[in-house]
Specification:
With 542 residues, the protein is of the alpha+beta class. The chain has three domains: 43-51 and 221-298 and 513-540, 3-Layer(aba) Sandwich (D-Maltodextrin-Binding Protein, domain 2); 74-197, Alpha-Beta Complex (Dipeptide-binding Protein, domain 1); 303-510, Dipeptide-binding Protein, domain 3. 30% of the residues lie in helices and 20% in strands. Strand 6 and strand 7 (170-174) form a beta hairpin. It is globular and about 65 Å long. Mean pLDDT is 90; it is low at 1-39.
Length: 542
């Protein structure tokens, strides 16, 4: 009897152990899934298609870093899709009558994530640090508008830079010359992320880039840093003391998700918001018809372009006839119709036709492969050589357009090899002149001179390694004007010069195909085009 009871007891213990183990494994897997999904009641997951590559917001490359920076750090103003400016940290502003200085009144209740008060002195520190030659600043050229800087935005002496803390909550910028207010609001301030002086101001400016601060940065934005996984996943926590009000949910996870996984992630609930990088067109009908998803096609001011290696060491494309021939040979309308299903426009320059500064008289080259080949032959183009084109991973339309471009150029006898790389690697290779051609995109703000940075000799964003400043000089002429009509006239000339000489081939303007889960509301998805996400205003219902 005892023997039988012991046998039964042993069996019961074994069953309990097995059941507990299974339950533990099941709960562990569920927790692991919840850690990486947007299905938790208080977790929102935002997807972008390429890595930010560093949490140093001034040393990142490309707009993906701005998706992170907008959550962690503060900017003075907020920009809507159509370029209207709303207050953010700056509650009001005023341009001087001579247009040579501009004063901003700041919110008086903004604090850093560690509880320290944010003041105008932090803005002064940020500007002086980011104009110092010893500090790497990807956006430095935008600071060139300030008095005391050279044409590249580098300060001759930090104490002479045109920025002043008038008082604790008032900052004043002084400019080299009269400047249009929109240029300051739409360009310069787009990339002025405010840094904490009490954390980064102890050493010299040269130590900022290598500071351990960037391993777990402290900002003053709507979310605080929690942890990250090497440029693939970033976990942020709502900042309860955010001066505009604490976000409506506790955790924001920013994840790098390949384009082909955006739709499955949305439908499954692992992704709540697609923020940067379009949903593949092949999936668009599925997303639009999904019961719990809001689908939002957004007209974009950005542009996709093909660059030439125009360095002095590579003379293959120095003749403008070669560049024009390439432009004529590419069937851009096919890219829009076939790859984008009409969700976009053929580009004739960096500004789309709905841009306020678009030149209505502008007409680009017509698709004409016969004329293109004739131009190449007249220029003495080397048809025997194979030309190397680099394409970043992640944007499916851009990747597929590379194949169509390769076919179009092959039709006129030009041999192209295509190589794809992650974004950071590709930019590094282009900077070193390791390719003949490349596909990239631009359009970080609505200012008509925005595209001039890729035409500025020596600028970090000039991946063509262009040394001729003639196109940039035209844009700079417009940048120095304050009247809209006078600026419009100059930027009309700028667009014509680009169309005539083709230093770049402007390919298309693609609508952003974005979406978010209906459990979210008050999501200003149109404004995402300017990296203004307004996450503190999102509302979450469960």
């Amino acid at each position: 009897m005892i023997k039988n009871w012991m046998t039964v007891l042993t069996c019961l213990i074994a069953v309990l152990l097995i059941t507990t183990a299974c339950s533990s494994n099941s709960n562990s897997e569920a927790s692991k899934e919840n850690d990486n999904s947007g299905s938790n009641d208080d977790v929102v997951t935002m997807a972008i298609i390429s890595t930010w590559d560093t949490l140093n917001v001034y040393n990142t490359s490309g707009n993906y870093g701005n998706a992170v920076a907008d959550q962690l750090f503060e900017r003075l103003v907020y920009r809507t899709h159509d370029g209207k400016i709303k207050p953010r940290l700056a509650q009001s502003w005023e341009m001087a009558t001579d247009s040579k200085s501009m004063t901003f009144e700041l919110a008086d209740n903004a604090i850093w994530h560690d509880g320290e008060k944010l003041t105008a002195n932090d803005i002064v520190f940020t500007v002086k640090a980011m104009t110092d030659e010893s500090v790497d600043n990807y956006y430095r050229s935008e600071f060139a508008v300030l008095a005391g800087t050279d044409e590249n935005g580098v300060a001759e002496k930090s104490d002479n830079v045109g920025v002043e803390a008038v008082d604790e909550h008032t900052v004043k910028f002084e400019f080299k010359e009269a400047v249009n207010e929109d240029r300051i609001l739409n360009a310069f301030l787009s990339f002025l992320y405010i840094l904490p002086e009490h954390k980064l101001g102890e050493g010299d400016y040269a130590s900022i880039n290598d500071s351990e601060f960037w391993n777990a940065p402290i900002g003053a934005g709507p979310f605080k840093y929690v942890k990250d996984e090497s440029g693939t996943s970033l976990e942020l926590e709502a900042f309860e003391d955010y001066y505009q009000g604490s976000p409506d949910f506790k955790t924001l996870v920013i994840r790098v998700v390949s384009a082909e996984n955006l739709t499955p992630g949305l439908i499954k609930g692992d992704i709540d918001v697609v923020a940067m990088g379009s949903i593949p067109l092949s999936d668009w009908d599925s997303v639009k018809n999904a019961e719990d998803i809001v689908a939002a096609p957004v007209e974009d001011y950005t542009y996709q372009y093909m660059l030439f290696n125009l360095s002095e060491s590579n003379d293959a494309f120095h003749d403008s006839r070669v560049r024009s021939a390439f432009d004529m040979a590419i069937n851009k309308q096919q890219i829009v119709d076939k790859l984008m299903l009409g969700e976009g426009k053929v580009a004739v320059g960096p500004m789309p036709e709905y841009h306020p500064y678009f030149n209505e008289k502008l007409s680009g080259n017509s698709y004409n492969s016969e004329e293109a080949k004739k131009l190449l032959e007249e220029s003495g183009f080397d048809f025997n050589r194979e030309y190397r084109m680099l394409v970043p991973q992640g944007n499916q339309v851009r990747e597929q357009s590379a194949l169509l471009i390769q076919q179009d150029l092959a039709a006129i006898g030009v041999k192209i090899s295509i190589e794809t790389y992650d974004f950071a690697t590709l930019l590094s290779m282009l900077s070193e002149g390791e390719a003949d051609l490349g596909l990239l995109g631009g359009g970080s703000n609505i200012d008509p001179g925005e595209s001039s940075v890729i035409l500025k000799p020596g600028d970090s964003r000039n991946y063509s390694l262009l040394t001729d400043s003639k196109w940039y000089d035209i844009a700079e002429k417009g940048a120095k004007l304050t009247d809209f009509n006078e600026r419009k006239e100059v930027y009309d000339d700028y667009q014509i010069a680009l169309a005539e000489d083709q230093p770049y081939i402007w390919l298309y303007h693609q609508n952003n195909l974005w979406a978010y889960n209906k459990r979210l509301s008050n999501v200003p998805i149109d404004d995402f085009v300017w990296m203004n996400f307004g996450t503190w205003n999102w509302k979450l219902s469960n």
